[in-house]
Design goal:
Elements (H helix, E strand, L loop, with lengths): L6 E2 L15 H5 L2 H23 L1 E2 L13 E9 L4 E8 L10 E5 L8 H9 L2 E3 L6 E3 L9 E6 L8 E2 L10 H18 L8 E6 L2 H16 L10 E7 L5 H14 L5 H10 L9 H14 L18 H14 L7 E2 L6 H11 L2 H6 L17 H6 L8 H9 L3 E7 L7 H10 L4 E10 L2 E9 L3 E5 L6 H4 L1 H13 L8
Parallel strand pairs: 1-12, 5-8, 5-10, 10-11, 11-13, 13-16
Antiparallel strand pairs: 2-3, 3-4, 4-8, 4-9, 6-7, 14-15, 15-16
The structure holds 2-acetamido-2-deoxy-beta-D-glucopyranose (3 copies).
The site of one 2-acetamido-2-deoxy-beta-D-glucopyranose has 6 residues, from loops.
Length: about 500
């Protein structure tokens, strides 16, 4: 079945807001002013209490030191239908009141930013082997930012909806709007971040979520009256699905150029596949199926890494199931496959986050509202997701003009969303070059290459797969540091 078709592209102490208005306003204020200050005071106190209720003192199996300032809980994004998204937030390790706010999103669609981003990749607490406990990650991105992980959309991880028909309506627009509502309501609970510089990051299918959310925020920010201004400064995406044509072409070329398939297969693909058309013909599906067949033998997400040979749990099984399920779907000639996730890590996370004491400490699944176990990737979300947007490049053009800081990075050993396709995407934007393609360095070694355009920067990470912060944690941290403070990567050995 796998060879029949190809993959559908398709993861502080909180400073109480200063309530300096204590006594003096009683003397000077008019009744009206008095009333409004009073309500501000109540509001601030209420948000502080809500915030403290979300504080996580200590998670089962967490190391005693260093201390980690963390919060987690639900934010309602749609009252009428009862939709709530689950977040995990870490204050910056030092000077949290000076550091920006960074949101991280994983893709899938259907994969959890807590299971992957936070607990396997860039969070300060990562799940240990076999899901026994947590370990401190010394390359965590909350060294550089206040770091927010969100499980999105509803149906992913601990996030849920009380209206099951919502789950049949998921597409990029739906996700962007719910995520925007999450941000607005989260900032009400954490008002000390309201004016903070805000950046959005993510990987894989979040290559769609991130620019779409940035665009949504940008448009909503135009409504000055709404008083919901979010201080968005830019976004950064890793191994991102960006444009279906270029990503597909890149996948085929990468497989051939990295000796995954023969010249004959590649010649056939070139002959029968027109990637400009999003509907692949049967001939193209069969030819591309040869690539996916080979990628079942190795790890498509990191082609030089050993394959995870744990008993086939979770993602692998889910992936295989997805292959069969979508064969019967008529509207898409392509197979759906998660963008980017290693079964070994998913099984550790699934062990850990399904423990009742962990869920309790985590403020998750309180009324046991989840229909089943917590899963790192949801197969049903993947198979029902409406892939109606084939390219987010027009959003790039728009937001580059708007002056947002935009970076794209790529682990160059990823076969799923390979660096070749990302290069085509970036080149298609037609931006003038500011600094030529050249190496960047870390620890006296070439860490990757980068090219700077007027309007955006592209960076590669040498030897990393789809999950850059997992494979190359030190390089990943250097990268996010350079992005957030808008400085150049090291160009000297
Ligand atoms: C969903 O329903 C449960 C049970 O009625 C309720 O406790 C919960 O608050 C609802 N969630 C939202 C976001 O409205
Ligand atoms: C792709 O196929 C679907 C269903 O068969 C059809 O509705 C759609 O118009 C096709 N798109 C293109 C670009 O050919
Ligand atoms: C998918 O989303 C598009 C755009 O939002 C919409 O026009 C279309 O009807 C949706 N398709 C399905 C099957 O829900």
């Amino acid at each position: 079945m796998a060879t029949e078709a190809a993959a559908r592209w398709l993861l502080l102490h909180p400073s109480l807001p200063q309530s300096s208005h204590k006594k003096q306003h009683l003397i000077f204020a008019s009744l009206l002013l008095f009333a409004s200050l009073q309500s501000f005071h109540c509001y601030a106190a209420a948000s502080y209490n809500e915030q403290e209720a979300d504080r996580v003192a200590f998670l089962p199996g967490q190391p005693r030191s260093p201390q980690v300032s963390q919060f987690s809980g639900y934010i309602t994004v749609n009252r009428q239908n009862g939709r709530a998204l689950f977040y995990w937030f870490f204050e910056a390790q030092t000077l949290p009141s000076k550091k920006p706010l960074l949101l991280w999103l994983n893709g899938g669609p259907g994969c959890s930013s807590i299971g992957y981003g936070a607990a396997s990749e860039l969070g300060p607490l990562r799940v240990t082997r076999n899901g026994a406990g947590l370990e401190f990650n010394k390359f965590a991105w909350n060294k550089e930012a206040n770091l927010l992980f969100l499980e999105s959309p509803v149906g992913v991880g601990f996030s849920y909806t009380n209206t099951s028909t919502d789950l049949t309506k998921l597409n990029d627009g739906f996700v962007a709007e719910d995520t925007y509502n999450f941000l607005v309501n989260w900032l009400d609970r954490f008002p000390q971040y309201k004016d903070r510089e805000f950046y959005i990051s993510g990987e894989s299918y979040a290559g769609h979520y991130v620019p779409q959310l940035a665009d949504f925020v940008y448009e909503r920010n135009k409504d000055k009256k709404a008083n919901r201004y979010i201080n968005l400064k830019g976004f950064i995406v890793g191994n991102p699905l960006t444009d279906d044509q270029y990503d597909s072409k890149g996948l085929a070329e990468y497989a051939w150029s990295h000796s995954v398939v023969s010249d004959e297969i590649y010649e056939r693909i070139k002959k029968v596949c027109n990637f400009m058309n999003s509907n692949w013909t049967n001939e193209c599906n069969q030819a591309m199926g040869n690539i996916f067949g080979q990628y079942q033998e190795i790890d498509i997400y990191n082609i030089y890494a050993p394959k995870c040979n744990l008993a086939q749990t979770s993602t692998v099984a889910v992936g295989a199931h997805a292959f069969e399920a979508s064969d019967q779907e008529q509207f898409s000639k392509r197979i759906r496959m998660f963008s980017g996730y290693d079964a070994c890590y998913s099984s550790y996370a699934e062990k850990y986050f399904n423990k009742p004491d962990v869920q309790k400490a985590f403020h998750a699944n309180g009324n046991e509202m989840l229909p089943g176990k917590w899963k790192v990737c949801s197969n049903s979300i993947l198979s029902s997701y409406n892939f109606s947007v084939l390219s987010v490049l027009p959003i790039y053009s728009k937001l580059i003009k708007a002056g947002l800081r935009i970076w794209l990075y790529s682990g160059d050993a990823d076969g799923r969303v390979p660096v070749i396709g990302s290069r085509y995407c970036v080149e298609a934007l037609g931006l003038p070059i500011k600094r030529d393609w050249q190496p960047w360095y870390l620890n006296k070694q070439v860490a990757g290459r980068f090219v700077e355009y007027h309007g955006m920067t592209m960076v590669t990470i040498r030897g990393a797969g789809h999950l850059v912060p997992l494979n190359k944690p030190e390089e990943g941290l250097a990268l996010i540091d350079a992005f957030l403070v808008d400085k150049q990567l090291f160009t000297n050995r």
